[in-house]
Structures
1.
Amino acid sequence: MKSVKYILAALGVIIIISLAIPFFISVDSYKSIIAAQVKEHTGRDLKIEGNISFAILPFPQIKLNKVTLSSLPGAKASNLIEVGFIEAKLRLAPLFDGKIVVDSLELNKPIINLEKLAGGKTTWDLQIASDSAPKASSESKSSAATDDSPFTISDIRIKNGKLQYIDRGNVLTVDNLDLDLTIPSSGGPVSFKLDVALAATNLSKLPSAASSGAAGAPAASSGGGRWPKSKIDLSALSRANGTISLKMPKLIAGSLSLDNLAIKAKLNDGVLTVNSLAAGLYGGNLEGEGSISGKDVQPVTVKFSLKNAILRNIAPEGGKIKIIDGMLNVACDLQTRGISQFDYINNLRGNINISGKNGKISGMDLHKVTQALNKPRDLVALGQNLQNALSKGETSFSALSAEISVNKGVMNITKSELISNETSISTKGQINLPQ
């Protein structure tokens, strides 16, 4: 992510300039010099409101307290970064060769404000002007700097951080951000441990990559009809290994609303595995697990259950016929593979089981419907009787069940039954998702 590279570069400039101050003189007196140098190299205003400490033994380290780096004019937040303290621990030997190797860089209680301004300019787009500053290029490996750079970070730790992203008035907030990031010097996958809490988020209000004019956003292909054939590239999953713990009080995506979402996952060798997912959905409890691989045919597995959901929360609003009571359980076990939405739908297979109980439907009398169908006097009478049965009344049912098998994207409803106090209805059918 380009914003991460720019912020790491800015931190590198701050540390390099701070280390250039003679450690045998009171460093606090050089705050203005450090700020002036950072201004020259980044174009941003640096403030160090706390003290600065530097030690050479048992290993070189520097600590800057209460640090802020300004944002761009017009941004809602005046600062790009606000940090309780920045502490860098360095290796001694590389200093004699003119290189700075940071064993660990800790940011305590950082507040990072990322914003996309009018005209497409971003607050994290820093103009690093010094040749001694760390540089990030599109050809760089998964390390903070190349082997030729005088500045390298091995381990980054963020404790109790907060990140805010603003785009055209829409805000995404990340709270309680804890991150351990280990960057191997060999250029292999980055190791990480991420523990994060997100504020309540409505995804429909966030601009998509395509709508915000992101470069390289894949265009939908018309070749697959409803399902685009444009390639989904998951190779980025192979660039890191680690664990993820995520919590969110509410996540809204269209008509779907998840409460108290909690996810525990791991990323290893190109495979993202969701070990557990739990949330409240439609008044019931959702639990799930699954995996997605960035290798070969990019297989996906999804397994979840929804227990004791309230039927009236699931049924769409509007119309004369409404579900006003009842409970629903759903169990789903699906697998697929592919490199596009078209592939994923066409290769979908698995099973879905649905069961409900103690339901009530208003606006329809199922018993009168079956009577009209069983004893039609003539077509006119049949039509009138059906119209009456489907326009008023009420139907209570004791059980609802459906068994669905999925193969090559086609959902075969092998059994579907609704049992009321007076009668029952059984149906079979097919839903062709690829078509």
Note: The chain has six helices and 21 strands.
2.
Amino acid sequence: RLLLSILLILSISTAAIAGNTPAGGPGDKAPVIKSFPNPVVAELTIEVQLSSNNYNKVEVKIVNLLGQEMVPTLKEDLNGLSNSFKVDLRDIPNGFYFMEVTTTSTDGSSYTHSKKITKN
């Protein structure tokens, strides 16, 4: 089970790095999700840029290599095309983690972006 979790996380990360986006119509564009700094010492800033207002919710998880959540899941509404969120990572140990950002659209479809982050 552990191996399957790691393989799933790696495949999601590879898809996100390769720029794979969900299937959709010609006007559908996946959100652009950026995070910084990396490595992070205290707070991780996450920016979500939308091409249209079809995405209305975001969920941010920070998980360890075993898939365990390290901080409470951040759930926010998206307002406008440019959104910024901060995640406090002061209380987690130094190491490697995955940030999973899932945006949900008004029709119920979703897009997940994963990225490896380092905590110093």
Note: Residues 2-18 form the longest helix (17 residues).
